[in-house]
Amino acid sequence: MVAALAGEDVPWEHVSVFQVDERVAPDGDPGRNLTQLLAALPPAAASARIVPMGLTGDLTEAAAAYAALLPARLDLVHLGLGADGHTASLVRGDPVLEVTDQDVAVTGLYQGHRRLTLTYPALDRARELLWLVTGADKRDALRRLRAGDTTIPAGRIQATAQLLVADAAAAGGA
User: Fold this and answer.
1) Strand stretches in the chain, DSSP E
2) pLDDT value at position 137?
3) Domains and CATH numbers, the chain
């Protein structure tokens, strides 16, 4: 999605980019979302304000510090969908799914990493959510998301305005 913005006339000097979630890993680690984001941004985005999730020190304090940087309401949140129905770092069975009094929280271990993630309250307040779902392995999760299945973490998001974009493989056409 970020790469698609390269050809658009975006007033980057007026853009702030906040992270939805981040793996607890060293700076520059290829598994870090920030590493991937910085690599994907077009050169014109150099004037944008990038607000990375801090991962040093106590993670609970880092989550609170990041939450304090967030605006009251994000304009646009870009989300993906995992084959297991997770989104952001909201993963089935993780206690973070029940956090309602914080906008950013620390997860348990998932795929080898703890993570910081926006919680449902922060996501639900967004002006708009943009879901980007790709790959045949996401077909069942996408079907369940579209059906409003709240047994998958992604299905519990209640933001008013949501746009879902899926490739043919995820949508069942390939």
Assistant:
1) 16-18, 21-23, 49-51, 76-79, 104-106, 115-118, 128-133, 162-166
2) 98
3) 15-171 (3.40.50.1360)
